[in-house]
Amino acid sequence: MPGRESARPLIHPTAIVEKGAELGDGVVIGPFAYVGPRVKLGEGTRIGLHAVIEGRTTIGARCQVHHGAVIGNLPQDLKYRGAPTQVVIGSGTTIREYATVHAATEENEATRIGDNVLLMAYTHIAHNCRLGNNVILANAVNLAGHVRVDDHAIIGGITPIHQFVAVGCHAFIGGGSRVPQDVPPYVKAAGNPLRACGLNTIGMERRGITAETRLELKRAYRILYRSQLNVAQALDRILRELKPYPEVHEFVEFVRSSERGIVR
């Protein structure tokens, strides 16, 4: 068939692709890269020179893994006892130079990264982390184990995030911050110690969230952060007084379910 030849994987002569690896059409493996025997690479994914993809790792279509990145290595977790665990990465994701993504700890668990994610250079995604779609982590962001980052969140560079922390959708965390507690959806936070500093209004505008919804979220933020109410009282007031937009509900449910407590 015409064009079939060009769809075959292109593997540099110096790369090592172990027997058993599954490569989709149009995959490109660069010089001195390593692809392990239980790796699955989706159509059109490109692996850069000296990158290492190992373990039970599945990477979706049209991803880019740049120079020196390591994906699927064993978790840096003293509880790990050699169980078969996974890394699962969606489509359209870019992983830049020397980023690391580690496998999960317990059997049948996975470290998961969604679609269209950008992990800039030297980011670290520890065991059992879960990243949604369209997440951006700037240079040298470090996620400890079991961190959750929801859709469209952005985290500035050189930011460590404590284990089990959750970062809500459309949240924005300024670079150089230390994140020991949960950051609610749509909220901006920065500093050491970390402080909430308003809503991610620009991000919401860019993603088409309506002015009416943004106004209700601003009211919810003011009730939670600027009234003299405790968290439970503030959430009850938000539900009583504000319009029941899905975004407001998501804001309330995130705060209500927070296990580490929210940034103040």
Write a brief caption for the model.
The chain is an alpha/beta fold and 264 residues long.
List the helices and strands and how they pair.
Blueprint: H1 4-7, E1 10-11, E2 16-17, E3 22-23, E4 28-29, E5 34-35, E6 40-41, E7 46-47, E8 52-53, E9 56-59, E10 64-65, E11 70-73, E12 86-89, E13 94-95, E14 100-102, E15 110-113, E16 118-119, E17 124-125, E18 130-131, E19 136-137, E20 142-143, E21 148-149, E22 154-155, E23 160-161, E24 166-167, E25 172-173, E26 187-190, E27 195-199, H2 201-206, H3 211-226, H4 231-241, H5 246-257
Parallel strand pairs: 1-4, 2-5, 3-6, 4-7, 5-8, 6-9, 7-10, 8-11, 9-12, 10-13, 11-14, 12-15, 13-16, 14-17, 15-18, 16-19, 17-20, 18-21, 19-22, 20-23, 21-24, 22-25, 25-26
Antiparallel strand pairs: 26-27
Helix pairs in contact: 3-4, 4-5
The CATH superfamily of the largest domain turns out to be Hexapeptide repeat proteins
Largest pleated sheet: 11 strands, mixed
CATH uppermost class of the largest domain? Mainly Beta
Structural class: alpha/beta
Task: Enumerate how many helices there are, as a single number.
Answer: 5
Strand order of the largest sheet: 1-4-7-10-13-16-19-22-25-26-27
- The total strand number stands at 27
Model regions low in confidence, pLDDT < 50 over at least 5 residues: 1-5
> Could you state the oligomeric state of the chains shown?
single chain
Give the overall form.
elongated
Radius of gyration: 20 Å
CATH topology of the largest domain: UDP N-Acetylglucosamine Acyltransferase, domain 1
Distance between the termini: 61 Å
Mean pLDDT, to the nearest integer, reads 96
From the 3D coordinates, which CATH architecture of the largest domain would you assign?
3 Solenoid
List the domain count as a whole number: 2
Helix % is 10-25%
**SS strand fraction:** 25-35%
